[in-house]
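Postdoc handover notes: sequence design on the structure in folder B. Input tokens:
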């Protein structure tokens, strides 16, 4: 390990305060929420437009961290005289410089993978295929950015003899920095497409930037069927490289002479050799071909490669959070297992603050080879530092080293079948359960036992998409402006606590609900954020006080009722309230003429503290109503200035909703409210391109039958076959919130990438679809709402808005929360 003094020398610090130069560094950190080992951690304080890492230093010091890279003058930190501070011009550049130095300590094959699509899959498949032959270090999940790559490379250790790293870029001139850190000896260029293209002139410019990763590589693997790619590697700078291309043309090093695609596999003939790829889709075949060429380069035989190919499984680059037995959740991360991805999964599990009890079910590390004695001790500490209270391990290696673990509750099994037999005897109760294992252990069976038996129709909710949408709206406001997340009606139908837990993790300032029981539900599930109750009612004020929920007061009746409730609590010295002003919506709210009396009554009651004053824009999304919106904003400004002038403390003001945030910057004031925009929808076209789809409603085909000409389908025989028709049944009906208006050919769903019509009337629990032109069978997936069947387009086709369709999705449809 390297000492902090050596790092200070390496980084050529502007100034430094080194009180303990002998401290060694093993862990790097830039996100204070991911602290594991305080004593040997080096924290990089990174400043962004919305955040400043320096603000978290005092808290990290209180938790035992003593080493920091900063960009502020050291004088600010002199009171912390037992800590080490290294001051640099740029914390990210310092992180990259340290990783670059660390890379020079190793002389092993390093694979650098870049491209628009397929990077993570190729990395994961190579790791799976070569696990028994090499001790591999690889990028955890998709750590391929300017910050992610340094953290990936820092994981390199003397025990490794092969490294596989991803490199991703989004802007010009980024790849050179990453290339200097990874310094790949072997390069793989995956598919070049439109992803991350917004900052490049065209595809050629993006390609030119990406291949800078390979400027010092010895070997480059690529698909030369792409003319742009093929031409790029013919230039002078690549003449000295060993170029290993594959393709269907005669120029390819490994020419494909034949492809035979069946339902679930593809046989590819390269020269005189046949390779059987266990996938039929073109993207998977392309990714597998990169892996085949790499293994051929390493000298593996056709038989060995086919044996390794046969064990490949689809890479689901995400964790899924599902409702589990006994008020628990199961975090399904069974697609791979290595030390780095385990750390990422543990970090997410630790963030599930609703659950004090954390359980981890883990298999032997089949992908990384044999662990040493000290590795098991380190793993024990890693689990404990992440708050794990129950550890269940499967595999002969874990069984052999079970004495190394002193977690509160432990269970060890040699095989997955033994665990499955014992599941009924292990008490799972109100806990977050992480299930993570190498593919060969079949932990999907464990997840199946833990999750609640449920509807075959599911609603996938992408938590990264929610965070993307939140960050987009944050980019439009000042760093000092706070954000309220509108989470009423179960987050517009998408669920509640798991989604809100993610918002809490990303430092949302306030939550807003419609009714008291929604807020109480969050408090009972350990959500500690401040919560505004917008539909505050007199009968529920007592409960609001009990659970620390902050009421919206909108007239003197509600004001009086709340004062009465608060008078029964002499122990409370101060309680926050929110004042609603009617600026033109004319539903509820105080008017200008009410203000003198309102101010006087608040001043007479020392228990009341005004947290915020707010109003509601009636037509922020409608340009034809901009004059009215401006009048609302002006009226709001006048009233709030009058109210705030009477109080000695700051009061937050907010009027901008989702549409108002982008269209009326002057209405941001101190806080904004984000509602439907969080979930991927807006009435502002210029915003929609920046938002990601959060919800995917999917089901499957449960039955297929063919009917003859003249035969009818469903109630009232509203569909009559004009030709022999293949009819599919899906378990989704109006009791699930599927709008009946989409029946009788109005709506479509997606099967095998094809839009197929809904025929007949939608029933309570099922619907019928026309599969005549699709090669589909029972068990095939059906996308009801998704990226290619957008819920806003569907809503518009039947005269509704996205709110209607989202909030209508029944509670009996399970919500599965997806984490990339």
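Designed sequence:
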């Amino acid at each position: 390990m390297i000492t902090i003094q050596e790092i200070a020398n390496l980084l050529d610090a502007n100034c430094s305060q080194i009180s303990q130069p002998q401290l060694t560094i093993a862990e790097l950190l830039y996100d204070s929420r991911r602290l594991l080992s305080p004593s040997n951690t080096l924290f990089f304080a990174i400043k962004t437009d919305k955040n400043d890492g320096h603000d978290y230093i005092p808290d990290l010091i209180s938790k035992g961290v003593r080493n920091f890279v900063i960009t502020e003058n050291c004088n600010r930190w002199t009171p912390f005289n037992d800590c080490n501070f290294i001051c640099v011009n740029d914390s990210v550049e310092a992180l990259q410089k340290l990783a670059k130095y660390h890379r020079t300590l190793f002389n092993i094959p390093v694979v650098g993978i870049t491209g628009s699509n397929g990077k993570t899959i190729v990395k994961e498949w190579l790791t799976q295929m070569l696990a028994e032959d090499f001790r591999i270090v690889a990028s955890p999940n998709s750590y391929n950015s300017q910050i992610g790559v340094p953290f990936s490379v820092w994981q390199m250790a003397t025990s490794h003899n092969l490294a596989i790293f991803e490199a991703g870029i989004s802007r010009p001139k980024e790849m050179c920095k990453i290339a200097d850190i990874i310094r790949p000896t072997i390069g793989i260029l995956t598919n070049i497409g439109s992803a991350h293209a917004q900052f490049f002139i065209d595809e050629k410019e993006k390609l030119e930037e990406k291949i800078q990763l390979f400027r010092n590589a010895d070997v480059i693997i690529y698909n030369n069927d792409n003319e742009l790619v093929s031409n790029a590697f013919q230039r002078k700078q690549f003449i000295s490289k060993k170029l290993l291309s594959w393709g269907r043309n005669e120029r390819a090093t490994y020419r494909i002479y034949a492809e035979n695609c069946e339902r679930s596999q593809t046989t590819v003939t390269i020269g005189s050799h046949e390779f059987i790829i266990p996938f039929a889709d073109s993207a998977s075949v392309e990714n597998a071909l990169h892996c085949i060429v790499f293994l051929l380069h390493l000298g593996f035989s056709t038989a060995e490669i086919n044996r390794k190919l046969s064990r490949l499984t689809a890479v689901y680059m995400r964790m899924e959070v599902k409702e589990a037995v006994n008020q628990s959740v199961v975090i399904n991360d069974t697609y791979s297992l290595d030390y780095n991805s385990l750390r990422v999964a543990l970090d997410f599990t630790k963030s599930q603050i609703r659950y004090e009890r954390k359980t981890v079910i883990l298999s032997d590390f089949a992908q990384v080879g044999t662990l040493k004695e000290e590795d098991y001790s380190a793993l024990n500490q890693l689990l404990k530092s992440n708050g794990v209270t129950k550890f269940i391990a499967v595999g002969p290696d874990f069984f052999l080293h079970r004495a190394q673990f002193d977690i509160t509750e432990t269970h060890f099994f040699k095989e997955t079948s033994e665990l499955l037999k014992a599941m009924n005897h292990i008490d799972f109760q109100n806990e977050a359960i992480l299930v993570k294992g190498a593919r060969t252990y079949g932990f999907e069976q464990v997840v199946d036992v833990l999750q609640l038996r449920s509807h075959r129709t599911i609603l996938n909710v992408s938590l990264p998409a929610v965070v993307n949408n939140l960050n987009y709206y944050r980019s439009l406001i000042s760093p000092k402006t706070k954000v309220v997340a509108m989470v009423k009606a179960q987050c517009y139908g998408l669920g509640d606590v798991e989604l809100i837990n993610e918002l809490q993790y990303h430092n949302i300032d306030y939550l807003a609900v419609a009714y008291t029981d929604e807020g109480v539900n969050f408090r009972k599930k350990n959500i500690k954020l401040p919560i505004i109750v917008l539909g505050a009612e007199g009968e529920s004020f007592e409960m609001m006080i009990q659970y620390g929920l902050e009421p919206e007061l909108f007239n003197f009746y509600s004001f009086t009722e709340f004062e009465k409730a608060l008078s029964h609590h002499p122990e409370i010295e101060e309680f926050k309230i929110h004042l609603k002003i009617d600026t033109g919506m004319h539903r509820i709210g105080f008017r200008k003429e009410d203000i003198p009396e309102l101010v006087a009554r608040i001043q007479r009651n020392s228990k009341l503290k005004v947290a915020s004053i707010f109003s509601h824009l009636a037509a922020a999304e409608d340009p034809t109503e901009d004059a009215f919106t401006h009048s609302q904003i002006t009226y709001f400004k006048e009233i709030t200035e009058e109210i705030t002038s009477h109080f000695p403390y700051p009061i937050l003001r907010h009027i901008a909703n989702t549409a108002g945030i982008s269209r009326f910057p002057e209405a941001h004031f101190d806080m904004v409210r984000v509602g439907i925009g969080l979930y991927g929808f807006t009435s502002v076209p210029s915003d929609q391109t920046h938002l990601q789809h959060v919800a995917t409603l999917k089901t499957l085909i449960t039955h297929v039958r063919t009917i003859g000409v003249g035969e009818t389908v469903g109630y009232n025989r509203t569909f009559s076959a004009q030709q022999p028709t293949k009819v599919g049944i899906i378990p989704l009906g109006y009791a699930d919130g599927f709008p009946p208006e989409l029946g009788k050919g109005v709506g479509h769903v997606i099967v095998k990438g094809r839009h197929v019509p809904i025929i007949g009337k939608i029933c309570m629990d099922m619907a019928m679809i026309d599969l005549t032109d699709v090669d589909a069978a029972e068990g095939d997936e059906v996308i009801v709402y998704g990226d290619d069947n957008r819920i806003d387009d569907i809503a518009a086709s039947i005269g509704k808005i996205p709110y209607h369709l989202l909030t209508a999705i029944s509670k009996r449809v399970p919500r599965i929360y997806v984490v990339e």
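Context for whoever picks this up: The chain is about 30% helix and 25% strand. Don't rerun without checking with the PI first.
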